[in-house]
């Protein structure tokens, strides 16, 4: 154990004046074992003897067990898996409900366009929710936001599952999306809290897969549920309800605060409890004025959206995400209308999209190994955001090629077998996941401490794209035809190909213009 048996009183001038702070290096048990009687506490007799405030200011040190990046791999795994399960639950819920729209229309006696409204409002909830949840997780801590949000989401999900009228269904779906928006922000920010930069990409990969798994696997599950005449659309609402309940229990049991300022506050609380020294404190206030929360934290994403590099990379990620949700309309159009697949079977090509996402995830992990070697060659642990972009460069080519290939071959069903456009779907999945994951890695590395606010901008834009793309996709493909509608999408994707290349070339200029960018190697 380093240091004396007390907490370095002011009589030790060398330690009392070393940076005017003390870095407590002992564990709570060690402090407890030293005995509370050795520490003077605040009584009427000794209150004047309490040293300066800075003397008992707590900080993290390199091997600190309280520092989230120093937690055991098992603890990190438990925390991240419970958070990722919330993301998967939300992604599945959006796509499974979208697949049930026709059955909902029949049940509530509304038009198909009206029956799509619960899905649209759910995704619009993703637009408004992150505006609050991301900044609030920086103001109040990840745990204080994630726990009530998962509980509220589970409760509303059961109301949706048992709704007796369309109005209740629609309103509750919006608020489910509003709460579910936290699942797109907080887990990604927690990766930045827990994982060092050189290993971060490998953990972003499974998070990206949970986002991709919803739109890819949800329609398949929902399609086979609806094909069974003994089941109805409510089962597609009950499944996410059950998942969200399990997620809430997992968060309650396994979660701990990961955001560094509040993890440090937790350290100070444990040390105060185990030593009886009330003067120990962390450099953060326990409560924030509501006005400060709104003017400083919630307004921050709006201020960050003026950052050119964040705005452009968020728009590109949003376009790729919108394409993923657009496939909810395109794939049934190609394989049901053109190839005459039956319901349930026409969702099978989503497996090809998911396989493409899996291969893209593997590619991103290999790209992360390259990133790690770059950091090791520079002998630094500081992130280098621009080195996340090469994976996005490759993904931009695959996405564009996949869109042209899928839509042109899918329009010649009499000459080209169904497997050909199905293989093209894997290219679209590969392109999406590499762009999406590179976008998250880039934002987390570039903005670090403000990662949640930066990811809020990314999530709001991509949710807008995901909500609006399916609204016009069906009519666009009906009027233009599969070939020409696909050409329009592929052309837009092709125009965006230079984005990651230009970002890489002019990275230093963009970083110098950024107010919130962290210092890089």
What does this structure look like?
This protein starts with 12 loop residues before the first helix and ends in a 9-residue tail after the last helix. α16 (349-377) packs parallel to α18, α17 (389-409) crosses α19 and α17 runs antiparallel to α20. The protein has helices at 13-16, 28-34, 73-99, 101-108, 112-115, 117-140, 142-161, 166-180, 186-194, 197-227, 234-254, 260-275, 290-298, 300-304, 308-338, 349-377, 389-409, 419-447, 451-495, 498-505, 507-512. The longest helix is centred in the C-terminal third of the chain and has 45 residues, at 451-495. It has 521 residues and is an all-alpha fold. It has two domains: 1-57 and 259-288, no CATH class; 68-258 and 299-512, Growth Hormone, Chain: A.
Features:
Growth Hormone, Chain: A, membrane, disordered N terminus, mainly alpha, 521 residues, 2 domains
What's the structural blueprint in terms of helices and strands?
Layout: H1 13-16, H2 28-34, H3 73-99, H4 101-108, H5 112-115, H6 117-140, H7 142-161, H8 166-180, H9 186-194, H10 197-227, H11 234-254, H12 260-275, H13 290-298, H14 300-304, H15 308-338, H16 349-377, H17 389-409, H18 419-447, H19 451-495, H20 498-505, H21 507-512
Helix pairs in contact: 2-12, 3-6, 3-9, 3-10, 3-11, 6-7, 6-8, 6-19, 7-8, 7-11, 9-10, 10-15, 10-16, 10-18, 15-18, 15-19, 16-18, 17-18, 17-19, 17-20, 18-19
């Amino acid at each position: 154990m380093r240091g004396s048996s007390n907490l370095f009183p002011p009589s030790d001038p060398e330690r009392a004046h070393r940076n005017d702070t003390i870095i407590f290096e002992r564990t709570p048990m060690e402090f407890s074992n030293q005995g509370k009687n050795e520490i003077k506490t605040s009584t009427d007799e000794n209150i004047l003897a309490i040293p300066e405030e800075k003397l008992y200011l707590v900080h993290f040190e390199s091997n600190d067990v309280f520092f989230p990046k120093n937690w055991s791999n098992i603890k990190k795994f438990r925390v991240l898996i419970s958070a990722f399960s919330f993301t998967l639950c939300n992604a599945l819920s959006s796509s499974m409900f979208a697949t049930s729209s026709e059955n909902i229309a029949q049940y509530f006696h509304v038009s198909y366009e009206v029956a799509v409204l619960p899905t649209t409002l759910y995704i619009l909830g993703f637009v408004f929710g992150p505006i609050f949840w991301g900044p609030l997780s920086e103001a109040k801590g990840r745990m204080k936001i994630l726990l009530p949000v998962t509980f509220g989401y589970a409760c509303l999900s059961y109301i949706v599952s048992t709704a007796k009228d369309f109005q209740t269904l629609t309103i509750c779906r919006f608020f489910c999306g509003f709460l579910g928006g936290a699942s797109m922000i907080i887990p990604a920010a927690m990766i930045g809290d827990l994982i060092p930069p050189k290993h971060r990409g490998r953990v972003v990969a499974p998070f990206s897969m949970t986002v991709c798994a919803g739109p890819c696997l949800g329609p398949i599950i929902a399609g086979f549920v609806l094909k069974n005449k003994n089941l109805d659309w409510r089962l597609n609402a009950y499944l996410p309800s059950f998942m969200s309940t399990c997620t809430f229990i997992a968060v309650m049991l396994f979660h701990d605060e990961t955001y560094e300022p509040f993890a440090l506050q937790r350290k100070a609380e444990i040390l105060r409890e185990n030593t009886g020294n009330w003067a120990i404190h962390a450099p953060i206030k326990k409560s924030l004025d509501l006005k400060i929360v709104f003017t400083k934290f919630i307004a921050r994403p709006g201020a960050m959206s003026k950052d050119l590099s964040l705005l452009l990379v968020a728009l590109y990620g949003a376009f790729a995400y919108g394409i993923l949700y657009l496939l909810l309309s395109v794939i049934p159009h190609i394989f049901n209308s053109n190839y005459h697949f039956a319901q349930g079977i026409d969702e099978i090509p989503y497996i090809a999209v998911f396989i493409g996402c899996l291969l893209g995830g593997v590619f991103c992990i290999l790209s992360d190994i390259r990133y790690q070697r770059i950091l090791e060659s520079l002998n630094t642990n500081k992130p280098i955001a621009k080195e996340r972009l090469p994976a996005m460069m490759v993904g931009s080519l695959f996405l564009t090629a996949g869109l042209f290939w899928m839509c042109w071959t899918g329009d010649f069903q009499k000459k080209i077998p169904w497997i050909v456009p199905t293989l093209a779907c894997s290219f679209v999945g590969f392109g999406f996941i590499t762009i999406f994951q590179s976008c998250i890695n880039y934002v987390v590395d570039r903005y670090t401490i403000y990662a949640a606010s930066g990811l809020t901008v990314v999530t709001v834009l991509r949710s807008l794209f995901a909500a609006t793309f399916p609204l016009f996709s069906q009519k666009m493909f009906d009027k233009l035809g599969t070939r020409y509608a696909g050409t329009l999408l592929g052309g837009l994707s092709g125009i965006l190909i230079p984005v990651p290349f230009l970002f890489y070339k002019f990275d230093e200029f963009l970083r110098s213009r950024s107010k919130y960018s962290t210092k890089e190697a």
